Amino acid sequence: MTEGRGKFITLEGLEGVGKTTNRQFVESLLDDADIDFIGTREPGGTALGEALRELVLAADGQMQDLTELLLMTASRVEHIANVIEPALAAGQWVLCDRFLDASIAYQGAGRQLGVERVADLHRLMDVTLEPDLTLLLDMPVATGLERMAARGTPDRIEREAMAFFERARQAYLQQAAMAPDRVLVVDAARPLDAVQESVRQALLPLLEGA
Ligand code: Z5A
Hints:
This protein is α/β, with parallel strands linked by helices. It has helices spanning about 20-30, 45-55, 65-90, 100-110, 115-125, 140-150, 160-180, 190-210, and strands at about 10-15, 35-40, 95, 135-140, 185.
């Protein structure tokens, strides 16, 4: 499938919602539909972006909140220019684990830098690319944190307090309310097969148009 521009799909949600699990499921759906795609992630996706990811998530690292925002944005600028746009232009679909909505949620709301400030910064950096579909995996913060507790050492952001994640969750939901045609909220607290059925339904219109 290389005719025309590819589709840009993003996965969003707080810690423990099952992004990785559902990303693998979306990949299997794209494979089944014989769609040429790349899977990528933020922060990261390029050599420089992955180095920035190491810096920004280092469990023992320290930085100003504004520095964190700038590093996330720098990673995104590199990612769009070197990976996402070239792939979409070549007709490939791009499946991306987190994108701009994450900066709105985590830095804008979680860190309280301001949702508009984050959006303004991206406009200033000419980041205008919007996903065709964003799957927002949503569930109560406590449930996600319980799931994450079973995993190894938390990174720098995972150590934040409950209130931080509550603010981020509300910002995510607000993004969804403001862009209902782009963002589909999936109740991720349900059993995995029910979550995946919602994900499959959300993708159907795009797959049928491919
Ligand atoms: N960040 C930011 O602050 N600003 C930005 O602009 C961007 C990112 C882009 C890295 O993200 C960090 O960067 C992240 C936000 C910040 N914050 N932190 N910390 P990441 O995406 O790499 O990290 P993550 O959020 O920890 O994602 P993850 O590894 O994909 O975890 P997950 O979403 O929870 O996925 P999971 O491993 O598939 O699921 C967790 C567990 O739940 C696992 O054991 C599953 O088997 C289980 N699971 C999944 N679904 C279910 C259901 N339905 N029922 C029961 N159990 C389930």
